[in-house]
């Protein structure tokens, strides 16, 4: 019942102008900041680890802005799910699209990360590319079904669950489908190395360089930024990485973490800090989340 009510509210609000919807989303985010104690504490721990140079007061302000951005991202999904193509495209300003166009016809991995406007970039790209992506299952079956349907709203998109492994993804890549890929969360120690992220060893999947090695794909990073005051979004496509991979799995994985860290430092309030990024520790290290 609660899931249905939430979906109905998001549907109802998507008719509003984006600046007004953004203001409501900010308010929802502040409410979540007050109510979601566990995620608030995880966010504060992550910010303390990653920004030790900041004062506690500055980190607290950043945490509140992070929840506000998360609230916006949640409500503004309604635009992606139900608004017209014309409205979505009016709200998105692409940057560096020539970097993607230069690689068309080759296997492409669109490397992204867990920023609050991640789905905006996915919706904008899916209007132009028949791609493949990997998803994580949701606990609520209604939410799970809704997310799968809406991520396939435009074009002919292929979605595989993480439990299916990477074999079907490799086949799709070799068959000419770009892969919309994010791997900046902690999935445990399997197929991962401890690679610095903000100077802290973080369990990081080595899938990206291994996929490139197997398929000859070109890595074109794609990061979406939510603009303030409901002024829309920027989808930034970066130049394809040269000399990648190098054959040094740790160095190649570090390059990915360093790129994501640089983007996070540009807009730290929009990264998904409530995730327990550092829960898997090297032997002998204590987990920071208790």
Descriptive overview:
- The chain starts with a helix and ends in a 24-residue tail after the last helix.
- The protein is built from 11 helices and 10 strands.
- With 290 residues, the chain is an alpha/beta fold.
- The strands form 3 sheets. Strands 4-3-5-2-8 form a 5-stranded parallel beta sheet, covered by helices on one side. Strands 1-10-9 form a 3-stranded mixed beta sheet.
- Helix 8 (141-151) links the parallel strand 3 (132-135) and strand 4.
- Helix 2 (18-35) crosses helix 4, helix 3 crosses helix 4 (56-82) and helix 10 packs across helix 11 (249-266).
The outline comes out as: globular
Q: Output the radius of gyration.
A: 19 Å
Structural class: alpha/beta
Secondary structure tally, helices: 11
Distance between the termini: 33 Å
Order of helices and strands: HHHHHEHEHEHEHEEEHEEEH
Total beta strands: 10
Q: Unreliable stretches, pLDDT < 50, 5 or more residues?
A: none
* Helix content, binned percent: 40-55%
β-strand percent reads: 15-25%
Q: Give a quick account of the main beta sheet: strands, pairing sense, barrel closure.
A: 5 strands, parallel
Q: How do the strands of the widest beta sheet line up side by side?
A: 4-3-5-2-8
Averaged pLDDT: 95
